[in-house]
Predict the 3D structure of the following.
Amino acid sequence: MIEARSESQRVPSHQARSGLFFAAMRQHAAWLEGQDYRLEYLRIDQPEAASFSEGLSAAIQRHAPRQLLMLEPGEYGVQQEIEQCCAAHRLALEVLDDPHFLCSRAQFAAWREGRKLLVMEHFYRHLRKERALLMDGAEPAGGSWNFDRQNRKGFGRAGPGSVPRPPSFAPDAMTRGALADVQRLFPDHPGRLDAFAWPVTREQALDMLGDFVDYRLAGFGTYQDAMWTDQPLLYHSGLSAALNLKLLDPREVIDAAVAAY
């Protein structure tokens, strides 16, 4: 695992974004080691962590592997970087489908074949049907595929009133260390970390999901576009970061919402 400095420097990342990534990585690394996995971890202030390519190249030279087995990256640029690094070392590379996604690249390619126009709504309906999500037979539950026109409400002059307070996750020593490294190495990057309270572990992410379903899901659709001063979350889930970090599987988020419905 590599805390590549270039990932924060390529575009000057908000300090909370970098802190979130590094804290979640360190927490997961500790969990892996607790499960007796063999793990090599490069922290952001180590020379080899200047970029992902440099860290990976150094690891290949140290271990002289016969093959690199990789889960498909979420970014095409990352895959290109790894492919180029393996080619430079004449190292065989095998790429596996990422089961985190509901649809593989091959499945998407099959869906899009022959289509002159790609529309997100059409793909969304396809997945709903294929996975029988909120369906009444061949028809969508509630009689419509979406309720966007009903979901554009604001709060009016009176404001949102009493809004459920979102959970807050006080950083532990490991997370505080990651945040301190970000402040030390990227002092000129935008943002502040004094109010950092994002979920960085699997357990915290599950708590965030449960809180959303119990207290905000019912108002999520109606007020999905609404904003109000000094209300950072309102009826939104706050789950995107946990999903992108793979602390949550999209299937369990869908299952929780469907069960609540």
